[in-house]
């Protein structure tokens, strides 16, 4: 993909948006507007979701999630798979546990990590599928 193709696409979206204005203005369906306002995501939840998605904006964390989407793994295995130090992987896993994306279980002295639940797996799979879509 050429380096400026994203910029070109953004420019085209801006140009297209000018054509999508509600001109001439039309009367608003106030009942519909009120219904949508009461159904809208509240500000506090929106903020928490923004922080959650911001946290996923780290390539290393996403690679760890991708590995855990395939199989439950220990830190040693994860470090080898994602080619990071065990210390760095442990740090990222602590962060992922803090936002409830991964959980763990102990087996003797070994600790195995897995995605917390199907919501996390579904989110990962949906985003990966979206990224792979062709325009």
From TrEMBL:
Which top-rank group of organisms is this from? Bacteria
Q: Which UniProt keywords apply?
A: DNA-binding, Transcription, Transcription regulation
- Which InterPro entries does the annotation name? ArsR-like_HTH, HTH_ArsR_DNA-bd_dom, Metal_resp_trans_reg, WH-like_DNA-bd_sf, WH_DNA-bd_sf
Q: Which organism is it from?
A: Oxynema aestuarii AP17
- Could you identify this protein by its name? Helix-turn-helix transcriptional regulator
Phosphoprotein keyword on record: no
SUPFAM superfamilies per UniProt: Winged helix' DNA-binding domain
All copies of the HTH arsR-type domain together span 41-135
Which Pfam families does this chain map to? Answer: HTH_5
Q: Gene3D superfamilies, per this entry?
A: Winged helix-like DNA-binding domain superfamily/Winged helix DNA-binding domain
- Signal peptide per UniProt: none
Q: Which GO terms describe its molecular function?
A: DNA binding; DNA-binding transcription factor activity
């Amino acid at each position: 993909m050429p380096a400026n193709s994203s910029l070109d696409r953004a420019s085209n979206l801006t140009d297209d948006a000018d054509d999508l204005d509600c001109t001439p203005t039309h009367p608003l369906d106030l009942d519909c507007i009120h219904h949508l306002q009461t159904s809208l995501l509240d500000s506090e939840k929106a903020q928490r979701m923004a922080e959650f998605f911001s946290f996923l904006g780290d390539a290393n964390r996403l690679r760890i999630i991708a590995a855990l989407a395939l199989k439950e793994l220990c830190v040693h295995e994860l470090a080898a798979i994602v080619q990071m130090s065990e210390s760095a992987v442990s740090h990222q896993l602590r962060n992922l546990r803090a936002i409830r994306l991964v959980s763990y279980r102990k087996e003797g002295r070994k600790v195995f990590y897995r995605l917390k639940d199907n919501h996390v797996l579904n989110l990962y799979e949906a985003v990966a599928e979206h990224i792979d879509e062709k325009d």
